[in-house]
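Sanity check record (used in CI):
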Amino acid sequence: MQMDVENLVADSGIAIIDFAPFLDASNKQDVADRMLASFKDIGFIYLINHGIPPERIAQMFSLSRTFFAQPLEVKMLAPHPPSGTHHRGYSPPGQEKVVQHLYDPDAIAEQRAQAPDVKESFECGRENDQVMPNIWLPEGVLPGFKETCLDFFWLCHEIELNILRALALGLHLPEDYFLKSHTAPDNQLRLLHYPSVPTEALQTEKIARIGQHSDFGSITLLLQDDVGGLEVEDPHVAGVFRPAPPVPGAIAVNAGDFMMRWSNDTIRSTIHRVRAPPGTHADGMTPERYSIPYFCSADFNTVVDCIPGTWDEERPKKYEPISAQEYIMKRLAASY
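Expected output for Clavaminate synthase-like protein:
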């Protein structure tokens, strides 16, 4: 099984990077350079020794399973609003359809009409967010849920800042270059549960777990269970997807569309999806899957222009300056 994972990781082309030499400052530039190289090539990395204690990850997954095991009427006590621009609270299976197209309403409608996304989710952010206030279960319904989610949110934020420092160093910028635009933080912690479904229905695309899409913030941190199913598009062959299996002890990190735009397409935001994991199952059912993505965005009041060093006379800017809020709200609205 370990060899299968190693082969799949090698086939995906995603680099496995030890973050410890950056965190302890023993070899920061080498780590930063290798991270940037993978972000430029495929837009993803696997990060080990990232700084999130294994017991905290196990605790968060345990709490996620407990939450999703609650009856629907309990989970709906913290309902996601109908508007896609307020990404907080609980969404039952079928409510959200992840779409890739942003500016073409016909393309959005066409993609939304395809196989439904069979997943449920819970989303939260920082407590003092005036744009998207949190929506929690009533007090006493699931003791400790709010506090554990918030603690994990801030733990992920610490890792985010270190990754942004490394990216800046890889681009030969001051380490705090991105930190100045990530102070709020306007981020989103999402708990995801994919129920067990017939494998044949996933393979024939009668249903979907998450259809092909790219993320739209700065970076995303992804923690997965051991089920698998994440696939990443081959950067050299459009439409060909390769498995990106969970690597023990690692978090997957990928760049989003806003970072790609910010870097004048130097950094790649790669299309990915979640389908049936490799292998067959005797009962014909794909096992349930849990994952925890942490979506990182620049401060909503930040207006960004292309990063210095990513453009010149021979490679002019591809994008006009834009605010993070304007860009992200358009993308959020398209999903609901």
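Confidence is low (pLDDT under 50) at residues 105-113. If this sentence no longer matches the regenerated tokens, the check is flagged for review.
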